[in-house]
Amino acid sequence: xxxFVYSSPHHKGDxxxxxxxxxxxxxxxxxxxxITWGKxxxxxxLPSRYRNxxxxxxxxxxxxxxxxxxxxxxxxxxxxKSYRVGFNVSMAPAxxxxxxxxxxxxxxxxxxxxxxxxxxxxxxxxxxxNKFSMPEEDLIITVKPPPSSLGDYCLYFGMYEVWNGxxxxxxxxxxxxVEKVNN
Length: 183
Description:
Layout: E1 18-21, E2 25-28, E3 34-35, E4 44-45, E5 60-62, E6 68-74, E7 82-96, E8 102-109, E9 116-121, E10 132-142, E11 155-161, E12 169-181
Antiparallel strand pairs: 1-2, 2-12, 3-6, 4-5, 5-12, 6-11, 7-10, 7-12, 8-9, 8-11
Pfam family, one: PP2
Organism: Cucurbita maxima (Pumpkin)
GO molecular function, one term: carbohydrate binding
């Protein structure tokens, strides 16, 4: 087909929006996140393309989706070390659809790795205007790549709610983080 250009409705993270802080912590700003349906302004409001990619005041705002999938990855990890992963978020005043809806934070090392996860309910957070971390309790994983992907030390993690099938909105994602934990 001549002249047809395929454009994905999904936002692909910009590597320039990832900040590594002294090999201890990595911050992934909204522009660095892979967001399913993120390019469709019916579902998400992303920071302006003219804003600095590492703008700490920027947030990705979930307007409405039934399929929540926000992911990212980093190679800034060491074998044998433990890391805390999560998202710094807040809820908009008109947040909806979170009643009885669990959100999962999942992480793995390497493409062939096995996911570890924590689930949390955002139901009681809808009236909270302050930022909070998800999960509230630490999700700590130890980097042990599976034998089938020897040398693949990429940490993949994300926030998911793809099972409920109900529409939800009002989640503000300020950044994701990976932080080395002292063993």
